[in-house]
Amino acid sequence: MGSPADEVNITDAIMEVDGCLFPADIISREGLAYTKNFPVREDDVFNVTYPKSGTTWMQEILSLIMNDVDISKVESVPNWNRAPWLELATAPGYLDGRESPRLATTHVYATFAPTQIMQGKGKVVYVYRNPKDTLISFYHFHNMAKFLSTPESFESFVSDFMNEKLSFGSWFEHIKTWMDVRDKANIIFIAYEDLRKDLAGSVTRIATFLGKKLDAEKLKALVDHCSFSSMKNNNMVNYSEVPRTYFDRGQKFMRKGTVGDWKTMFTVAMNEEFDAFVREKMKGYELDDGWTSDTK
Ligand code: A3P
């Protein structure tokens, strides 16, 4: 997630800003201020996600849609440079002088996002994933990333997820704040599960949203390049080049890439409690595709 440019000492220190927790050694207050005040160009594209919802996958998809499926270009530049996180302290250097159209990534709530997005500038691709699979993926990521604390147990991690005690805040608040601005921002919601079910169809939907048209050959090349098996072995996206300072090498960033992995760790009782909690939390929030926590 971080830029590997500097070998610095990375710890799991946390900072709280406006009620949301952030990993203090990779996200700075300056980065958050930069994000909020980011001067948005009309053709900027923002890849917005709660962590572990398919950010890296979408970075690759958007990079290719936006460069007319020039695979050689994405094979020479790592994802964190092509689609940098706005809230990281390194973002200004990457983005300010960059040619249009620019691609940026962010994990922040809409309330921390660039104000100009809410005035209809730029385009937002919001990727969401079943919260239980997001939780499982985030749990494993906590055991890998040095800037996140190692969970005491799976049960304590589930409790932290439900009680907004994790870095980048609450999955529920995240999606709700972005759904709250969908009449103001130029935004499309894409489910991870739909990418899995029909990648070509989802890519066509995203390309249309961005005003692009891909012929059959380019679409196929993109879909092949963005398959899990291809991305798993692609050093420009699988984080294998990031120094040990950030990631424990014993774990793989490209872990399973499946739907329903939560079934391997949730007990029946945990699942029932979690589903009831999600239903309550998400009351009044439904997406156009009929998504609720149980349906994907
Ligand atoms: P798992 O941990 O469930 O395997 P993010 O990029 O937001 O951090 O999300 C990481 C998750 O997306 C991981 O999930 C990773 O394996 C999955 N992922 C990344 N690329 C993928 C792809 N091409 N197809 C399916 N899943 C992918």
What does this structure look like?
The chain is an alpha/beta fold and 296 residues long. 37% of the residues lie in helices and 9% in strands. The strands form two sheets. The protein has a four-stranded parallel β-sheet with strand order 4-3-5-6, with helices on both faces. β1 and β2 form a beta hairpin. The two termini are 26 Å apart. Adenosine-3'-5'-diphosphate (A3P) binds next to α2, α6 and α12. The site of adenosine-3'-5'-diphosphate has 19 residues, from α2, α6 and α12.
Search tags:
alpha/beta; transferase; EC 2.8.2.-; disordered N terminus; globular; binds adenosine-3'-5'-diphosphate; 6 strands; 296 residues; 4-stranded parallel beta sheet; two-stranded antiparallel sheet; Sulfotransferase_dom; 13 helices
Helix content: 25-40%
Bound molecules: adenosine-3'-5'-diphosphate
Terminus-to-terminus distance: 26 Å
Task: Please indicate the percent range of residues in DSSP E strands (runs of 2 or more).
Answer: 5-15%
How many strands appear in the DSSP assignment?
A: 6
Q: From the structure provided, what is the oligomeric state, counting identical versus distinct chains? A: single chain
Number of helices: 13
| Structural class determined from secondary elements | alpha/beta
Q: Mind describing the biggest β-sheet?
A: 4 strands, parallel
Spatial strand order of the main sheet: 4-3-5-6
**Based on CA inertia axes, which overall geometry fits?**
globular
Report Rg: 18 Å
The arrangement of helices and strands along the chain is EEHEHHHHEEHHHEHHHHH
